Amino acid sequence: MTRLSSETKGFKGLRVVSFESRRHEQMEDLIKQSGGQPLMAPAMQEVPVGENQEALAFGNRLLAGDIDIVIFLTGVGTRALFDILETRISRADLVKAFSKTRLIARGPKPFTALRELGLSSIDTVNEPATWHEVLSMLDHRDPIRGKTVAVQEYGSTNKELIEGLVERGARVIRVPVYRWTLPENREPLRRALQAVIGGEADVVLFTNSNQINQVLRFAQEEGLEKKFRQALAHTVVASVGPICTQFLDEYGVPVDIEPEQPRMHDLVVEASRKGAAILEKKRTQSSVRPGLKTLQVAPLDLVQRSDTLQDSTFMKACRCETTSYTPIWLMRQAGRYMKEYRDMRERHSFLDLCKDSDLATEVSVYAVERLGVDAAIIFSDILLLLEPMGLSLEYAQGDGPVIHNPVRTIADVHALRVAEAESLRFVYEAIHKTRRALPPTVPLIGFAGAPFTLASYMIEGRGSRNYIHTKALMYQDRTTWDHLMQKISDGLVAYLNSQIAAGAQAVQLFDSWVGCLSPADYRQYVLPHSQSVIGRLTPGTPVIHFGTQTGTLLELMKEAGGDVIGLDWRVELDDAWKRLGSVAVQGNLDPAALFAPPAQIRRQAKSILDKAGGRPGHIFNLGHGILPNTPVGHVKALVDAVHELSHR
Q1: Is 457 among the residues known to form the active site?
Q2: Which long-range contacts (C-beta less than 8 Å, at least 24 apart) are formed by 11-14?
Q3: Which of 15, 102, 106, 332 is catalytic?
Q4: Do 253 and 395 fall into the same domain?
């Protein structure tokens, strides 16, 4: 076994709980070498599926040539499947049949098992070998639509992989080979749970997704699940890799450490290197708390006057002042990629979440605590301003926002009201509550849609590719266009200034659709109205002016106003900043990059930071919002990487 150098002995006596089963002796040795006190608690054992008719039926179809692709997910499972099949089929016939199919090994262990069993033509999935990489490999090869794909399963079904195969048109066969159960001797597991609950554990290591199921299942049986979950918030939680992290995220357990490579050795080294510092921060940070109802909050006027808040890295970056590291926050940092948010959406509609100030506060604050970002943004939506203007707004399932009475004529424009600030009081209440709930070092961002983007929604009635109705009105009737934009602008000024008065330290203007315009059209039809809004906002409040596909409009957006210009991922940050000159910039990682392994995310973050060159005025963000299904652990990895790599 590889010995660890003295430099890795960073646990410094920390008490480390590990639920590893098959390799628990090796894990115990690694923890000791790293200077930790191990508490080993094997959490599961493998039990073969008795009378495995599904596996035998798969074998018959394999011999008949009915299987096009076989995906092997584990080394143990690969060998177990051959053991089952060889009760009815000879090894020679199996090898011959498998040789006529495409074989995919999810990582080195099933690859090695297949080679040992006599097979040679095998595709291996790239690290970190999650279901994302399996599907990506298939997407880059021949289409699988109409093909029969068999998946060797281990313990439980990988729902995301199966759903991804079905969505691509494959006929999927699940081939279970063994199941997981709790170990016969459960006393070590019981002692480990009680050690975590009793504050006698400092670091908890998870090395297998099914292990998580078993640990929480046992905690539930013992009546300790709630206490165990709460206690984990006061320990360092380390996950071996993306699959394990995703399971922990699904169970609402925040992960503090995930190594770049999903290996047990790397997990221990990384945990020993970072564990002590993370533990100290978690146990002293007042923001680690069980729920919003127990928050200790300061009076709002004291929070707003806080020098600590104004001197935060985010606020200083907005003012182009020097900071000790690059601040980071993320658009849609509170959203559907988080299990907690999805659980809440099962009970409440999107509009209900926006209009219930307690729920909006909970979502906004949780994202900050979960990710460790440097600014919060209020949970809301850019289209809320449209209802008090007289439009019927619905968030249709699967279709996004829909306006049932779109604006198409001069009469429609005349019928619109200028939105009164008071009509959106629930937003201000949410800002007020969120500001009081946040730590006094974390600024709160309010926001609204920019005039052009709101006008486009109002005219098109829903999402659009070509903006035909919008441009037709804009080109054909300038008077009506300006009248509409003026009504929107007047409402926006009152709305944003009310957000600032309620407790927002900065505001962002989202011009998400303006990239459909040429520079000449932007200057003529949009710039005066955006300039009018920004110019009338409360002095001293930083304004972030953001749009997508705006590479040709950046100088014009700066002319329209804003202390910070948001950049999407389609421009190089250094080139864009050179064009913009003396202004802060925000951005600009491609949101899709968060599906890459943490090591690649770190490299891409470094590339953007290198382009910024440590220049005062850079706020790290994505080029647009976090996408659905983004692994939460990857988002946290980005935040941590930016903080670490930009430390000055």
Answers
A1: yes
A2: 11/35, 11/36, 11/37, 11/203, 11/271, 11/272, 11/275, 11/276, 12/276, 13/37, 14/202, 14/203, 14/275, 14/276, 14/279
A3: 332
A4: no
